[in-house]
Structure prediction request, 362 residues.
Amino acid sequence: MSNEKFSLIDKLAEQHSLSRAEWTTLLGGDEASLFERAGKLQPEEEEVLQYAAAKARKVATSVYGSDVYIRGIVEFSNTCNKNCYYCGLRAGNSKLQRYRLTVEDILECCEDGYKYGFRTFVLQSGEDPYYTTEMICDLVKRLKQDYPDCAVTLSLGEKSYEEYKAYREAGADRYLLRHETANEEHYGKLHPENMSWKNRMRCLRDLKSLGYQTGCGVMIGSPNQTVECLVDDMMFMQEFEPEMIGLGPFLPHSDTPFKEEPKGSYEMTLFLISLCRLMLPHALIPATTALGTIKPDGREQGILAGANVIMPNLSPVQVRDKYMLYDNKICTGDTSSECRDCIERRMELIGYNVVISRGDYK
Ligand code: 5AD
Ligand code: SF4
Ligand code: FES
Prediction:
């Protein structure tokens, strides 16, 4: 089995795509899969992971060198009218104290960020209708005017084509919207009935068609995820060709319906980062905060497995512990400049350089 996996990794590195049957072998196979025995890897499984990571790292280096791009993320509202079963910001979580930053607050975070060398600002929130299309467009326009050398990434959830179009015309460059799962049935187990997988997919296609650098992604090990779901995810991304891919382990949040569910596999997350890099050599792939939460050096290992982006927090410290998607999120007590310096040090220690650049898709 592992011999077969090595040759599939080689094939993926050469051809950048695999068939459904091949993905199924690589991600699962007849034996109890890597995925189902998280944290208890057999030596040969460890070898498969190392093999994929080494190849993926080489590919990442051939495209992006030893550069790591940083994005400053401003979590400007934790108010959300959706009820995703996995997320601590869900509308049904009445324990959470909600906040909304003003446009002035947000601009101030970005001003700090610019001084610290960020050339991409990511504006992220729950799905919060308080911020009208006009407000978002004005904010984007001001940022693009004040910082013409910066990229603006939005991550505001599902919107209409017209809204996405308005943000784009205001100057937004990129949009992050994880697809969460490419399997419609699985989507139904992660979300209440008023959310639809088809609309999620519609959003992603709209974003691409509007010329955004578009980011999708999944949680690894979300409840009810099977090998087949992950195969669907890889097949979807192989066809969709996202410019950005966000992958992190599922981590339970104590005030959600999934509070008792086990966390996702750290090793499997790294493996998928490597496979995504081999499939889409130019993709911008962050070593996510969730990866840094599940393991203290998770983000470093993510970079070494083929990721090339890190997204430190630029939110004001007073609100950081309120943007809790999952329990024990890192960096909630640290300031923007502390995180910025911390990342630079961590990257230097593994032989990578944080660069002052927009870090566009190449
Ligand atoms: N564990 C890990 N990731 C989560 N997200 C939301 N809740 C969790 C959780 N409990 C991810 C989702 C969402 C992104 C903003 O954060 O994939 O798209
Ligand atoms: Fe809201 Fe996004 Fe959390 Fe879903 S994942 S509850 S849309 S913040
Ligand atoms: Fe926030 Fe290290 S990145 S403290």
User: Anything to note?
Assistant: Residues 86-87, 178, 180, 219, 248, 250-251, 253, 290, 325-326 surround 5'-deoxyadenosine (ligand 1) (CB under 6 Å).
